[in-house]
Specification:
406 residues; 26% helix; Rossmann fold; 3-stranded antiparallel β-sheet; 9 helices; 9-stranded mixed β-sheet
Length: 406
């Protein structure tokens, strides 16, 4: 009997789904449709037990891995292009990079720049930085990161033998018609670049800009445009400065490694033999935990934690050496960070081991630079440690006594 109820009230008829067919070896194409025979596309997979585990290699451990995209991001005027010139110069000459455990052999480097003039900016800057110029290829060519142009880019990289490629800035190679805020458009281009890096095992470093409305936010999310710029990068560093003007390089994304130290840096001006002045990067202190970097200082006259620690240490040690365990206890009482004390120690504090334990004392004045005004101590001064025999001297005397007594 026919169902005379309105269509919206009828029970839907049963439809049997097709039985899945055994997948046939194939590649590319679309998903199969019911009743069309053998599938035109099958998911490619590998059994984990048949895959050889490979180590991650780095050009700059842990900041720049090989076979992946690394992003350097920051606001304009932070010296991003100067930093990549510094990295390129050191890599080309086989010099040890900042904080690295060892130097690599000289590398072939390719810098593709849409913003800096090759003759007037890049070459003079690289010369001042001591680059081995025959190991650096420079290009100001205009192209897109689409499949057709990636073939030509790969050919040039192979011909020169580059192991590291800098793109400055990456948005210049996406095309004027692309909306960089649209994920589907940005993702396609970044996927092409990511695949090229993986297949060739090259390090690809892209320079990107931060939005102007991000304040002091140094995260990847502050990058201009779609989040896919940062999503495709396996490592990312941002450059920024606090309200006192101190600049930092911060490792904010590290999918393939541990998190690297935050590094202080400054930009110094040096005159070339051509009479023009150029910026140079001067690295400063590095520290593992940047949580104490006071990026949101309430007023300019508030000191950074490192300045405060330096003044406190000088006030504590100016009258003589102190045991380290007593210094640590006093720091907790006075609200001083021992991490900050460790950061200012080089060049200011000497440490030595005695029978009573490790001792800190002020280094020779020549190596300390301008001495700070000492901070007032929160409690009465600790008793001084009287100069005595170092542990090595004492052990030698004890050995001599044992030998004498037979």
């Amino acid at each position: 009997m026919p169902d005379l109820r309105p269509a919206t009230q009828r029970r839907p008829e049963r439809v049997d789904l097709p039985v899945p067919r055994a997948p046939a070896p194939a590649s590319g194409g679309e998903f199969d449709t019911p009743g069309s025979g053998a599938p035109r596309w099958v998911l490619h997979y590998r059994v984990a037990s048949e895959v050889k585990a490979l180590p991650t290699e780095f050009l700059w451990d842990p900041y720049i891995p090989k076979g992946a995209i690394t992003m350097i991001a920051g606001k304009g005027g932070m010296g991003k292009s100067t930093i990549i010139c510094k990295l390129a110069a050191d890599l080309s000459a086989g010099r040890k990079l900042q904080g690295a455990r060892r130097a690599l052999l000289p590398q072939k480097v390719m810098i593709i720049s849409a913003e800096d003039d090759i003759e007037r900016r890049l070459v003079p800057t690289l010369e001042l930085m001591g680059a081995t110029l025959e190991n650096i290829a420079l290009s100001d060519s205009t192209f897109l990161l689409d499949e057709d142009h990636m073939v030509g880019l790969g050919a040039a990289i192979e011909q020169f033998g580059a192991t590291v490629i800098f793109l400055d800035p990456v948005v210049s190679y996406l095309g004027g018609e692309m909306d960089i805020n649209q994920s589907n458009q940005v993702r396609e281009m970044m996927d092409n670049l990511d695949r090229a890096a993986k297949r060739s095992d090259r390090a690809v470093i892209v320079v990107h800009h931060h939005r102007k409305d991000t304040g002091n936010n140094p995260g990847v999310e502050a990058a201009l445009g779609s989040a896919d710029f940062g999503n495709k990068a396996r490592s990312a560093v941002v450059v920024w400065k606090d309200k006192l003007g101190q600049r930092y390089l911060k490792h904010v994304k590290h999918n393939w490694s541990r998190q690297g130290d935050t590094i202080e840096y400054s930009l110094e001006t040096v005159k070339h033999t051509n009479g023009t002045e150029y910026s140079q990067v001067a690295w400063g202190m590095a520290f593992a935990d940047d949580s104490e970097v006071e990026e949101g200082l309430p007023q300019p006259k508030v000191e950074r934690v490192t300045d405060k620690a330096r003044a406190w240490l000088f006030g504590l040690l100016r009258d003589g050496p102190r045991l380290f365990k007593e210094i640590a206890a006093r720091a907790e009482t006075d609200g001083i960070s021992m991490k900050a004390c460790e950061r200012v120690k080089p060049g200011m504090i000497n440490s030595r081991k005695t029978l009573e334990g490790w001792v800190w004392e002020l280094a020779e004045r020549e190596g300390m630079g301008d001495l700070p005004e000492p901070l007032p101590l929160a409690v009465s001064p600790m008793p001084q440690i009287k100069p005595g025999l170092d542990l090595d001297v004492l052990e030698g005397a004890l050995k001599a006594m044992r030998a004498r007594d037979g």
